[in-house]
Amino acid sequence: MSLLIDCPHCHAKNRLEATRLNEAPNCGACHAPLLAGAPIAATKESLPELLKHLKLPVVIDFWAPWCGPCQQFGPTFAAAAKDMAGKILFVKVDTEAEPELGNQFRVRSIPTLLMLEQNMELERVSGAMSSGQFKAWLMQFL
């Protein structure tokens, strides 16, 4: 299955075969690393493929555009994605647009963060964190 991934650098849309996720793919337009520097927006179609093929740990931020704490935490999540590129893949799921994913992962409040490795949930946290708290939480998985 192919995924549609926005380049975090030039914002060009890139079609990428899911089986190539671990090959450090580059953007077809600007040639910068495609999976480094910004969170990936996931859908009910793309998330299973990401989790199935990716070997990196994955942290998922379940959020919604109307959620104040989600909006407040967004820049912290994006900054960590840039700082930890290549070590952890950062994924965002808009629960307003993708309610099935929220139900599938039993998300009861937002923001909720899930850490997954090899498609298995390691830990979840509900509620926004400060930058320091979030980085400390992430470091336990490296």
UniProtKB/TrEMBL annotation:
The lineage of its organism: Bacteria, Pseudomonadati, Pseudomonadota, Betaproteobacteria, Neisseriales. Gene3D superfamilies: Glutaredoxin, Zn-finger domain of Sec23/24. Pfam families: Thioredoxin (PF00085), Zn_ribbon_Thio2 (PF21352). InterPro entries: Thio2_N, Thioredoxin-like_sf, Thioredoxin_CS, Thioredoxin_domain. One of its GO terms (molecular function) is protein-disulfide reductase activity. Residues 18-142 form the Thioredoxin domain. It comes from Chitinibacter bivalviorum. One of its GO terms (cellular component) is cytosol. This is Thioredoxin TrxC. Keywords: Disulfide bond, Redox-active center. It comes from the Bacteria. PROSITE patterns: THIOREDOXIN_1, THIOREDOXIN_2.
